[in-house]
């Protein structure tokens, strides 16, 4: 066991909950020495989405070399590591099992403590990794290909769910639209670029759940609206037509995300809003969220793109807090496809 020469213990983080094989080394919760991400997009592209068995098999091939790369990049050896953090939930079960088994092997072989990390709480941790004096509590919109969830974040590793998508995640809805437009997989970045040159008011797509009370989302109807449009009018007639559709579609997604997030911020009385997950890279979302937060006097906290998408640095960072506090979940930890975080309840004050 060892440290980084400045007294902090060194920890490894492992993340394999979906289709990215990730390992990182941190010296403490903010000091990331290495963060390696191996994306499997090329393997899933022919299928237009993540194929669970393909993902699990690819994790098995890559996890060893990726951990070694993370150690090499951090210029440390395994003998200097003091603990391991691994994502145990939620995610694709076959993918999670690869990371959890690997972490157990490392801890068994090296006699290290092991902590289980919730993938969603790890995403929220990316804000604490990236900013000093993060206001608490704050609202965080986690928006990715697998999740669209509004959280009230009370502390690192402590959050309750305000609302979440009832069907497709926002990133999934964008990917499905890109697929319908023949833009390849994952189509979010392509939609973003095309939308930049399109007219967001050219077509009126539905704003699902926008007028509903509460903080839940629903995006599956949006994709259906585009499919119906393309069925009725046929494929786009020009490059500009595709750009206008992309811009209008993203505008509908962004409208709902911004509106619900701002409502949540007002209802909870927070001073800050965080945005994490792969869709946080979307320029229109960043721009609109920045305007809305600016007008409402809210601080906006969006980590750099490599900490918004899936990565092991966020897992190691949250794991470092657990390990520094002396926690050791031991070799009996399990992987779970779903996770249950507490829901935020409005506490009705009754008159005495
Ligand atoms: O967090 P992430 O890397 O992986 C998980 O889903 O867990 O998020 C990937 C999602 C995909 O749906 C992708 O299309 C979307 O984020 N995405 C974007 C952009 N970059 C990535 N969506 C819109 N605009 C972008 N620039
Ligand atoms: Zn994720």
Main beta sheet: strand number and arrangement? Answer: 5 strands, mixed
Overall number of domains: 2
Question: What is the name of the CATH superfamily of the largest domain?
Answer: ATPase, nucleotide binding domain
What's the architecture of the largest domain, going by CATH?
2-Layer Sandwich
Taking all Cα atoms into account, the compactness measure Rg is: 21 Å
> Total number of helical segments?
11
- What would the CATH topology of the largest domain be? Nucleotidyltransferase, domain 5
- Mean of residue pLDDT values: 94
What is the first-to-last residue Cα distance? 58 Å
Q: What ligands does this structure carry?
A: 5'-O-[(R)-(carboxyoxy)(hydroxy)phosphoryl]adenosine, zinc ion
Range of strand content: 15-25%
The CATH class of the largest domain? Alpha Beta
Q: In percent, how helical is the residue content?
A: 40-55%
Secondary-structure-derived class: alpha/beta
Briefly characterize the structure:
This protein has 352 residues and is of the alpha/beta class. Helices cover 43% and strands 18% of the residues. It binds 5'-O-[(R)-(carboxyoxy)(hydroxy)phosphoryl]adenosine and zinc ion.
Question: Would you kindly provide a written description of the structure presented here, covering whatever features stand out?
Answer:
The chain has 2 domains: 10-123 and 308-324, ATPase, nucleotide binding domain (Nucleotidyltransferase, domain 5, 2-Layer Sandwich); 134-306, ATPase, nucleotide binding domain (Nucleotidyltransferase, domain 5, 2-Layer Sandwich), CATH 3.30.420. The termini are far apart. The chain has helices at 41-44, 52-74, 93-110, 119-130, 170-180, 188-196, 220-233, 239-268, 283-296, 305-308, 313-324, and strands spanning 10-15, 20-26, 32-39, 81-89, 114-118, 138-143, 148-155, 158-164, 272-276, 299-301. The protein is globular and about 65 Å long. It is an alpha/beta fold. 43% of the residues lie in helices and 18% in strands. The strands form 2 sheets. It has a 5-stranded mixed sheet with strand order 3-2-1-4-5, sandwiched between helices. A 5-stranded mixed sheet has the order 8-7-6-9-10, sandwiched between helices. β6 and β7 form a beta hairpin. Residues 18, 144-146, 171, 174-175, 186-189, 191-192, 277-279, 281-282, 309-310 line the site of 5'-O-[(R)-(carboxyoxy)(hydroxy)phosphoryl]adenosine (KG4). Zinc ion binds at residues 119, 123, 144, 146, 310.
